[in-house]
């Protein structure tokens, strides 16, 4: 434990001396919006210094709409002045140890002033059996000055090359360049056609689409119409990959950039699109419904409108990285986690833990907004994000979250995936269904995964595997081509090894995919079809003849000894050596990896309320040690049951840890975790220390309650208050040697001293700290400094000075996308709500 705290202290010191460090991907990075690009060098330096001292590893610049009253200070995108500011930012970043990424454009999606009407996104509808093609008319959303214009046609043959031409000339003379170019989620709404689409369709699908256009609107389940719709989507997917994703990545690499790509939202196969980039990036939008006691969920957030984050959607990005050997998988993190001024660090941590378990290891906060240093609170804010910037109510304690993320990401980035199962993604079954998005195409977004993932047999199987404790990745039709089979029946992608390939219950399968399955099976790979063989070959051309050959080949394939049509998937996976982790049975979420030495490494998060502690078998029953970023490192008590070693895991709801292979833990005695509790009661002295609008008068409480119930403007107070109490122990001092202190409900962060000794800062659920070393028998003095949110102050600010809401475009809205008005809010509970207990 002592070694851990020494390491932790050194880590915090590194934040202050970041100029001595190189750029770190282990540290979390942040989106950084430049409103109107009305930025200056002095304020850029000041904000970069804040990020560096806080433990942030880098920034991602996104120019967006401007601020009223600052029009004369706007800098047009990619002008010499803008590029000079960019050069300054990158230079200062290097001085401070911060990386810099940028969007290849402003706002989103790709588009701008050099996108001509002929290059702009097009939509096709069928009128009297013929194609009626029109521009979508969509323009760049939230564009910055100099970035306005039409959205690029993502299927256009020469569109990407022409679009990127302005960046070639802009960066031709730039000595300093960003690390990465970024492509935001698809959002080219209604785009479903391009000038040569009919010709491309005929070349690729071997028949003329135009006489069959009416079939695209068929809703009767007509067999011919279904095959045509699949062919139509297949063509869109190929054009998107070949003409949009790959050219952008190729151009970026040629000019010295890596790429971060959010493929989701597109009509293509996400696995192929994510793999096209150097850093696949997913998104965590909204609040997951974790069953963690005390975890708040914003009641105004609309699930019907936005959906909730889903780890299966996140796994598309990490699967692409695992298969292709990419070290980094990133995430846009914290989008609309809760309403403005209402997000706590305790709400952020579980969302990040979920991302880690889904294979994400390069967190980008969503996010921070450039704001002039002279600007009064709350400064400039982006309309849809958690505020991780300098004006945030948790800025003082931001380094604690960042230290946690860095610790985790250092281990996650330094290890390799260790998943047993590859699950084939039968996207053609999705394309056979009616699309729920505009333009008649399926958009595979991270919001409503029920529209394209969860309702399919593929989605149901994936949910089952996730809940039952299997370690797995997804694989596409194209990615099957890179797999080879080992002598032991495993599948090798060149970067990862899997024990079994599972084909979910599916109706449609391309003949090219069947050939890949035959190749792998002939080489000895273990393949399991869930419940049934696919029934229909895709492709309308010469379908009857190809269908006959398809059925015969599939029947022959299914008779091989290493290929099974499974009626008992668990048994067949076990026979193939696939491990079913007990962690999931206990209600825990995890990712399994291998460290640099090949030893097992697990990140485990308790995102529910099923277990607090208990015996569990890890993997094949190996001895493990526990390594927690927040509680230290220790060996674990073990026992042998039915021939397998089990470890005793103490992990309360909201906690997380790493489990690593250990040499031996058998000499550790097992001590029960049946804890005794001593509630600390009495008269609490409450003193307000700092904050706004003014300091309320001191108070005394016999029962802990929200300070908003006090008089003297406390219901509007945002800041810090100290709670002080004196108490005696019951019984001998010795029994309290290993005691911890549980603070109960904290709104929102608590720094604790006991008898003058600093116990640390509790910033996430469960709010617990070690206390035994600081206790004495009589006269213990407990001091707890609690910092709340800024929401209550904004209730007053919006009454008195609503002039801070001065942004163009969408201005500032609440989580329901209605005009922001904090005056309607009720006071949010603040302070120490308790109960406060010693647990020993």
From TrEMBL:
UniProt keyword Kinase, yes or no: no
Coiled-coil zones: none
InterPro entries referenced in this protein's UniProt entry, alphabetically: Galactose-bd-like_sf, Ulvan_degrading_GH
Signal sequence, start to end: 1-20
Alphabetized SUPFAM superfamilies for the sequence: Galactose-binding domain-like
Keywords: Signal
Regions that span the bilayer: none
NCBIfam families: rhamnoside_JR
Listed PANTHER family: DNA-BINDING PROTEIN (PUTATIVE SECRETED PROTEIN)-RELATED (PTHR36848), SECRETED PROTEIN (PTHR36848:SF2)
Protein name: Glycoside hydrolase family 2 sugar binding
Organism of provenance: Dyadobacter fermentans (strain ATCC 700827 / DSM 18053 / CIP 107007 / KCTC 52180 / NS114)
